[in-house]
Design goal:
Rossmann fold, alpha/beta, 10 helices, six-stranded mixed sheet, 6 strands, globular
Length: 205
Amino acid sequence: MAKLVQSPILEESFGLIDREFGAHSFTPAEYAVVRRVIHSTADFDFKELVMFGEGAIAAALEHLRGGGPIVVDVTMVRQGVVGLVERTFQNPLLTAVTVGEPAETGRTRTETGLLRCLEQSPNALVVIGNAPTALLALCDRIEAGQVQPALVIGAPVGFVAVEASKQRLAQTAVQQIRVEGRKGGSAVAAAILNALLVLAWEQQP
């Protein structure tokens, strides 16, 4: 499959990152993901923070090529990925916060929306770039055997419940790419998914 045309500035930025990155043990596919995160953040700390489950990238590429659904937590993640989704496999793209409602139990709009999306698509590729509460709710469903996402991208950012949600994800038996510590965010989550979309498109058999 032909290489996706990307902007000259993006390609130049990748070249600068390549020269500065230094020695690493990432596979070529893992490096493509981490490089795109660094491009989105200008933060080389992500060399040490992005963690890949064994087989996670392969599972993601198979899901994306097959047109499987994608669930993102917030609108900013959606805006960051919708262009490449439309240029590549046109996967159904669901946004949790737009369908959620605050529940009497105290759940956030993003939590309730994520759970609603998972009722519709329990095997979706799930992207969390903002809401640790949604990631914790997702982990509850995974551990209960109610959903089995094709992949979870866990990259919420901040202080409250962020690290705990990522640690919880690390303990679940699900394919995952996660960002350790407090860093992450919508731009990071979108960069990870965009890198996977490019890999899936350019490495089609």
